[in-house]
Amino acid sequence: MRAGFFWALISAVLAVTPVVADPIGDGVDHLPIFDAHVHYKEPAWGPYPPGTVIELMDKSGVAMALVSSTPDDGTIKLYEYAPNRIVPEVRPYHGGWGSSNWTRAPEMLDYLRGRLDAHPHVGIGEFHAHSIDTKDDAFLRQIAKLAAERNILLHIHTDEAETVKFFYDAEPKLTIIWAHAGMSAAPGVIEKMMDTYPVLYADLSYREHEILGAEDIEPEWKHLLTKHSDKFMVGSDTWANAQWENYVELINDNRRWISYFPKDLAEKFAYKNAEKLFGINVDKSLIGTR
Fold it and tell me: Which backbone phi and psi does 47 adopt, to 5 degrees?
């Protein structure tokens, strides 16, 4: 009688105890990667021609990449060279207009509309928008409206959650990628934002060394990445040629933290979230092709 009760109790405990899957470990090396934060800026065109960029992607196991450039011509160079590997988005920066003053360019909206008409861009960004200057309020609302009208995303670099909220207040149906997951935003802040906005995604460029501690994923990041596992993507941020020089290691750094998660989550971070977001197929068979 006692034995029967004991085994019934054990069975009941097992029934409600969640099964924790093993980390993917070395299996991460076999996953294709979607790099959600690539720039191909003009200083890279000479030392890293399109063929070399694609070779670096191949060597790193990167099947596809979301690319924006200063100027946009760089993105189009890569896209025309390897259209099956490049997902283009238009960056506003060109000529004398960059991260500190692009919102003041008198013809910026016409420029963006022209680039969107001419090329298959899936979004506007990555652009910098820190604390919203009241002088920029009306213009940035127009940027949000343009994205909503075209059914494209915004890729926003800001440390401030309030700035992301500003764009959602302007156009609640927007899809946004929060570059660098806010760069300095704490995991708790990111969690609250993702709780609030169902189509807020983030690339994790420049956060990989915060995520992985000495022996495991940092607890706050583990909680966040597990809770919102369908919203995060790998990013390299090749904003300077030094990033291209270290590209293989940058991707390896991302594989390292991904390796601590179970296979189903690892696949999401590596490429499946990008598949869902962009409606594409990210497959290892793309590696070595154009």
Answer: -70, -20
